[in-house]
């Protein structure tokens, strides 16, 4: 019983939400990209870049809000590379994603050295203020889920996104600009991942640390798949995975019960493989995701 | 793209990787200048660190060795139309297995050495077995599953190495027995480098994979499935069987890469065992056009970069992460080869699966 009290309490609830927000927002970003037909395994790198820029902007302007804006803006710019390489130059989207993750990992530490003369942790900067019990990014993150659901299923733009991702040639034949929709979606995914990164660096903390996203971009990808490419699905999966992260931190203090923290860390990834295998309802990606679009070719 | 090609095709094959390398170094130079460093001193130090003297050259080969294996990991799967992005996890699991089997006492070297190498290969193959089966039987995309297995492996190897095998209070496993050591060249040459016969094993494996892919029926079938699974099936070749086989061999190659680190370089498994070899392997395979000879050259390039980076940092003051940036930019340029094809007005080449 004591274990239950240690796991299920108000603190776990709020820490679950804090942990889930970056997963959720980045997963929604991934959703736009993949729904439009562009695989995005660079969420990790885009988050890391966002986390870094948020700290840099906050450091030089003294404003955490500008830091958040900067992270969103630069996340979009960073994603533009993925868009250019994979949409315009038809590169393998997975390869481009791998390169961007490397670029973010190397680039942030390189700049950390150049700007702050350190390769570990940045100086402390102004963080976002509390709004009641949480940081603003928590409320905004939940709002992003709602708005994304509305955009995807109740607006012409959302319909086009889904059409382009499922059947680009049909979409093209009715006059939808496939490439333009994909550019918008990929850039949007970078902006949302940037937001998620800012939540980590100037929301939860007030510093940037080397590699601070620590695989969260890939957990977000897992949440996107586990949530079957739906905004509320991604939100639910993110809350579940966020809960595991929250209890993992708590369990490190009570490992006596015999569950190593490492096994809890694995759960999101194992669940995702199980979901893909179809054991709990098959997770099927958008039909055209990963396929470069070439007019007149099918 | 075949193993044997005429000179015009060959020129086309190598012109894009070379342009990609050149372009990325130009971008690297701009970054170095913009950051206020001297590009000549930077590249000079990088070169000297990588090739200045016997010891440096040996260390470059040592750094290239795991990349030969992980490059082959990616390339072998790619030849079957698969993208194994899980080389990192397969290498870690293979390396940990070698570090464990290597500690067995009282086994004669003639059995211990091959047994440990084999165990690492089996571990690497097993680690990709589930993604392989899911791909072959259900069509589940291997990119996602191998990424997931990478992350599962990080936690798993951390648990076993730190909490099960490690000496208490230490972040590394006990040293392996000398009967499982890969022989080091420093035993006879006057140098500090830990370069070992794992490098020569890498060269042999490069040749074996070349032979397997282009001179045997197994390789023919694997490549046929890679070019068109449907056409292969029509010709009586089982796509599912070959997908599983190619993935298992691919995973075994990564496991062998881990064995070289455990048995030749570290003599144990430790925190920070892999310097992202699995991911650099993707760059190596791409730049090497998924051909064993190309992979060898690309592994040397990336090995030289990673070996020269500390010297570059020491002499020119440039952060070592410049090398990571260079790698990323090289991958981007190779991936976006359409850019160069448009510039050179070369005819676009069909992609995988078209």
Automatic annotation (TrEMBL), chain A:
InterPro entries: ABC_BtuC-like (IPR037294), ABC_transp_permease (IPR001851). Signal peptide: none annotated. GO terms for cellular component: plasma membrane. It is found in: Cell membrane. Its main location: membrane. Pfam families: BPD_transp_2. GO terms for molecular function: transmembrane transporter activity. This is Nucleoside ABC transporter membrane protein. The lineage of its organism: Bacteria, Bacillati, Bacillota, Clostridia, Halanaerobiales.
From TrEMBL, chain B:
CDD domains: TM_PBP1_transp_TpRbsC_like. Coiled coil: none annotated. Keywords: Cell membrane, Membrane, Transmembrane, Transmembrane helix. It is a multi-pass membrane protein. The chain crosses the membrane at residues 16-37, 57-78, 90-111, 117-136, 143-162, 191-213, 277-302, 322-340. Pfam families: BPD_transp_2 (PF02653). GO terms for molecular function: transmembrane transporter activity. GO terms for cellular component: plasma membrane. It is found in: Cell membrane. It comes from the Bacteria. PANTHER family: ABC TRANSPORTER, PERMEASE PROTEIN, GUANOSINE ABC TRANSPORTER PERMEASE PROTEIN NUPP. This is Nucleoside ABC transporter membrane protein. It comes from Orenia metallireducens. The lineage of its organism: Bacteria, Bacillati, Bacillota, Clostridia, Halanaerobiales.
